[in-house]
Amino acid sequence: MASKKAYSSKSAILTITASSKVSVQIGTKFFTLEYAESRSVPNEPGVNIEEERKILWDTVNAEVDAQIEDVYNTYETVKKKKSRK
Q1: Which residues of 58-84 are buried (b: 16+ CB within 10 A; e: fewer)?
Q2: Are 68 and 61 in contact (CB under 8 A)?
Q3: pLDDT over 80 (residue 20)
Q4: What gap in Å lies between CA 37 and CA 19, rounded to an integer?
Q5: Which of 36, 68, 39 is nearest to 53 (CA)?
Q6: Distance between CA atoms of residues 33 and 26, nearest Å
Q7: DSSP string, 16-42
Q8: What is the pTM of this model?
């Protein structure tokens, strides 16, 4: 029996997508925050798909981190206003 040669994909990545999601408890409430982003990747020399993925992951994770910070800051502002009453 002849050995079958492994097929190597010839497809090009045209779009990459990443999403980040986290659930956090702030005070007595739980929040689920999420962000997703897709990017078109040019099929041309010099494009490093691994670097593109890393940059995209960093972007979506930073956005979720910013959402957490925004929710926390809002919570703290409301808490301070309530304590002044």
Answers
A1: eebeebbeebeeeeeeeeeeeeeeeee
A2: no
A3: yes
A4: 6
A5: 39
A6: 12
A7: EEEEEEEEEEETTEEEEEEEEEEEE--
A8: 0.78
pLDDT tens column, 25-72: 998 999 999 999 999 999 889 999 999 999 999 999 999 999 999 999
| Dihedrals phi, psi of 30, to nearest 5 degrees | -105, 140
One-letter identity of residue 10: K
3-class secondary structure, 1: coil
9 CB contacts (<8 Å, ≥6 apart)? none
Give me the residue spans of the domains in the chain. 15-84
